[in-house]
Design goal:
With 715 residues, the protein is an alpha/beta fold. The protein is built from 23 helices and 27 strands.
Amino acid sequence: MTPRPRFPALLPLVLLTCIVASAILSAGCTAAPDPVRIGVLLPANGSLATHSLDGLAWAAEALNREGGRPVELVYRDTSTGNISAYAEELAGRGDIDVIIGPATSAELLEIAPLVTGRGKLLMSPSATSGLVTAEFRENDLVWRTCSGDGEQLKAIFGILSDTGVENVSLVAANTTYGETFARLAPAAASMHGVRLTGTAFVEDPDDLAAVAARLSGEEPDTVVAALYPEEAARLADALSPAGLFLTDAGRSPYLIERLGLRAEGISGTSLAPDPSTGYAIAYEEVFGEEPPAFAAQTYDALLLAVYTAARQEAAPDEPLAASLRWVVSGDGATLGWDPQEASEAAAMIRAGGHPAVTGASGPLRFGEHSASGPLAGYYTRWTIEGGAFSESTPVASAEVSPRRPTLSSPLTGNEGPVVWMVYPLAKGDRSFADSAYRGLFRAGESFDFTKREFTYDDLALLDAVFAARNFTEKPDLVITEGFQFAGASRAWAEANPDIRFVTLEQEDFGLPNACDAVMVPYGASYLAGVMAAKMTETGRIGAIAGAPVAVIEPFVEGFRAGAGAYDPAVNVTVLYVGESFEGFGMPERAGDLARGLRAEGVDVILMIAGSSNTGIVAAARETGDVFLIGEDADQSYLAPNLVAASVVKNIDAIVYCAVEDEVAGRFTPGQEVWTLENGGTGLFVSPRFSEYGWVGTEWHDRAVAAEGEYLAEIW
């Protein structure tokens, strides 16, 4: 196939000082509307700067690109100056109704009366103390976009209980933050059958040595520390890091910088974005790193401020707090966090519509008391491994209703084609779906088009819409991802000849409106086999696959061939988690298979089981002497010390190019074959295993040749 150009680089964003709307009308035209001015009271520097002010600037700039009423952020850096003076200044301005901040619960307790006394909304993305709820229970102008520490404690003791911890000691800072943990920990521990052996308050950092001595006498399995990074690092100096579990305030790069190798094994939990929204992927695309702890909650505070302003336009006599309460009680079309959908939501609200809005951090649903924070938050467990944070898949602290797709939005005003993306699973799998979304996001940064997203769970809805051709917003291009859509994709394309379809890993339907992109990972898996054969010390390697389906075959055959080419004496064992699609979502079963392979002497495993791979990683961690090779995308984040490489399918490139071709009007039916030779697949060697980088260069041509022979046999 024709080689594709590289993705255009995303424009760098400058550090936020004041973002002014970019969509100013030309001279002589109708004057642009006054901007929505939003105050921001957050730190730019120091260990508490975990909100991403650059992310906030990006959000405002992206919303302005979408059109509508422009957004302007008025920022005051709380790491310098007097926060009370800043709060009084912003609250005293007649053009600011909402202030985002502050960072800590103590600061919130200090400035809330100054802000709400002027009738303004104060919305903190990170003040998690339960004292905030108690203090402002009846103040409907104080809001939080973060869940309270009570929810975090439930998550912490649930995680510890699941990992076999029975006895826990608690260390808490002598602050409003630490006091909340000390007050709520006993009930949370009891709920999960964990014994709380004692609680120690840290009055002075110099007391930490004495605290550590006291803890050793209590003999806990784990020490949970509700401390800020500096104190957490000093406590780790006095304890075994492997037995230290930190709360969200302690998660900071400072730990690794300060402790070096002694940081290895420290664990903890922190708030995280809802993985099904794709926010973390988008953030990484823009900034080249994962979002910091409270970036998603800060983004959501901006959304709620914009939506409140839109509601005030529709109902100017409504009190501010009532407008915000109305916004978060929407029961109409469900719209998400990204700039396109957020702009649609604001337009609907201005026109009197009542969309159900969701954010980067999850559903924006609140209980009776706004200061309590959202009803549910997402938490992830992290561990420092290999000098980096390794994170689990975030889980919700309470049951969350799945978001249903929006089929139309009559107030979009977007130009360009309408593109529907249909994933096999919800985003958050860190594999197939996430890679496709990465390409869709990149395309959205480059081209004008309207996107709608669906999953396999929406199959019945899509079947009905395509069969009846009952479109309120007809798509120009539909992209379906995964072999399980083959029958549906064919039926939809046959019934809708005026809609173009790009299918991923299905079949060539022979239709003038369908193009199938096939990714053949044989060559990349061949390289993985070479690498595994070089790494093994036992002469036994293995592969665990989700199911014996067609898309798995080139992985398996390439892996066998590469290992055999490097060392014919190496033994390769292949096991399957299930017989069909369900095998890609059974991590416990996959973990059992991995333990069985290890018992047989296998010390390198290729993971090709989708979401089931997490079970393989958990099993490998138990002994720490099994190296892993991931699939579809770089999966070193799962276990930086164990995942040596990944067989990657550049699904993001295929999705990006499909949208690019649609925008350019150069859709081509038939079948595209993406291989190691043309860059559609490859072997990504994890940074900590860079000594094996020679595999991709020295063996590349042999892998391409072997892949060519394989393709000649099957086509």
